[in-house]
């Protein structure tokens, strides 16, 4: 239902959005028109594609949009203002204390779902998401594959609370429940009961090198524990690879997201763990973004 003041609208919406985009561009926001439109749609409680159907708005709605634009111009993350971030067909609740899923992870998700499609299994596919954060990959996979038995591990208690909130919301929406664990992905005994049982292990771990220069939305608002992976960005991945190798069943596969400087380093770590068919993949900007590997069927 549209806000009441649309009925007595007096302010043209499109010029307001164009002006907002200009302000955001001046503030250094990367996609100013997209953000301005999404904030307007959020204030109006409509889908962004419906904005063209609303030529005029009321004073109160315009003020709501202006307040949102002010905060976005101060480089508050867009997703913190709207309260959600998408991954696949799932919208995830996000905010302070949890890493905001990025569009780059969509390709890793697509690869993971494609791999599961190739598997002719006599059992429900077992999927493990390491460093689940908001639950993004785990919940997107569970939504796309309701037959899957999805497990997700997160160490940070704040992030785990967001993951539980999102998991409960997806159950309410009719998705297959996932199993959440509080645990350290570098612990050699984490989710020990899944040893040699996982068909697929995915991970979007902290991987940014410690000296990286980041946009304010990331540096000032994403939890640093979810961002940085030591001096070279590989500390968590280096400690996590033995866990992945232990969890995978023969014939299983893994996909790990990484910093765009580290594709070769992640590939070498997976090869050193006796995983095969190691492949590097690029993201939507053609930058190195994730690496996949398989557990040999006879090993």
From TrEMBL:
S-adenosyl-L-methionine binds at residues 154, 204. The keyword Methyltransferase applies. Substrate binds at residues 204-207. Residues 123-208 form the Methyltransferase small domain. Keywords: Methyltransferase, S-adenosyl-L-methionine, Transferase. CDD domains: AdoMet_MTases. InterPro entries: DNA_methylase_N6_adenine_CS, HemK-like, N5-glutamine_MTase, PrmC_N, RF_methyltr_PrmC, SAM-dependent_MTases_sf, Small_mtfrase_dom. Methylates the class 1 translation termination release factors RF1/PrfA and RF2/PrfB on the glutamine residue of the universally conserved GGQ motif. Belongs to the protein N5-glutamine methyltransferase family. PrmC subfamily. This is Release factor glutamine methyltransferase. It comes from Nocardia coubleae. The lineage of its organism: Bacteria, Bacillati, Actinomycetota, Actinomycetes, Mycobacteriales.
